[in-house]
Amino acid sequence: MNSTPGGLSENDSVVLAEPTRDALRTLGRMLVEVGYTEDAIAEIVGARDPDEMLSHTANYAYFTDEETTELATTVGVLARLFLLNRAVPAPVVRTSLKRELYATLESLGFLSTAQGACRGTVSVTPYRSRLFLSDQLFTSKGPQKVRHSTRTDMVMPPHATSILSLSEVPDVTGSLLDVGCAGGFLSIMAESRCDRVVGIDINPRAIRYARANATMNNTAAWFETADIGEYSIHAKRSFDNLLFNAPSLPRFRAENSEMGQMSAQAAFMLIASAARRTLCRGGTARIVITAEVQAKFGSLTAMVDEWSASAGAPETTVRELDAPSLGITPEQLRSRRLHGRSLLVTERSDVDLLMNALLERDVIEVVPAVIRLNM
């Protein structure tokens, strides 16, 4: 059987083999035992709070000094390998990690050793007593040496929009369909509140990670490869809730062809259609978007109202989110400057490119928000 980095099955029709499941459960237990938590890592790298750190992990990799004393501890070495995505001298890894933990990481394929140094092959993100495997969004050779991944089928770690989407989870009860579930972060975080959770994604690689994360966290969420545009309800069991963290960051080009991205309008139309097929009477669809607001609408609410009328959607409400790193105010657009910690570009040289594209599309602001459709 072929395997990806991390030893996850390439054949999506095959449930993870039992030895792999056992190893994942063991890994989860050991990481909890050594105190591998977002709070501990935030303290080591000097973050203001864990959510802020996980939303800007590449920045912390960029600025964290390799001589930081705490990076030599067990948690520090794990953070270097699996969150800052750095190489660590192999003797340091073997000395800092317990033998069973090292052996488990190695057996799963989560460690790669070459030229006397170890690297993580995956990211392992701790969050609220849970752990999430994913691809590495970037790699780092040390302070000010960060390279972002260009992998087209990359499964991202929990990040800013994932954490923003959690604000909707307290209102979710009954059953949940998590659309575009990626590594299963929202499904697993919501699972304890729900009778039934199903996560779907068009990327088979994402489903392999999601299933591994469900195993590692001992949750009953179910994951499968599927396209929400064609998704059929199994055994005619509709859902009480649908949640879609849409990949709708502002675009550098006018067309909707950028890798992995879709416009906020496309996300809305997709879910407005899917909600009729998947939700029960009285159910709610929630779409977390970052929307380009055009001058002809004047506001996000007016723009969504027109989308809703065009789609014949049911009752729709809009809640704008306080997330400066994901938005662009009219003032910022006029001055052609982004928020100091903006997540809308990976290179500062891209700022002008983005601003030009937005102005060409007559965009007056970029707004992160949650749209609710009540059936």
From TrEMBL:
Methyltransferase small domain residues: 166-296
GO MF entry, a single one: methyltransferase activity
Protein's UniProt name: SAM-dependent methyltransferase
Matches recorded under CDD domains: AdoMet_MTases
Keywords, comma-separated and alphabetical: Methyltransferase, Transferase
Biological process annotations from GO: methylation
Species of origin: Phytomonospora endophytica
InterPro entries for the chain: SAM-dependent_MTases_sf, Small_mtfrase_dom
Lineage: Bacteria, Bacillati, Actinomycetota, Actinomycetes, Micromonosporales
Hydrolase is among the record's keywords: no
Cited SUPFAM superfamilies: S-adenosyl-L-methionine-dependent methyltransferases (SSF53335)
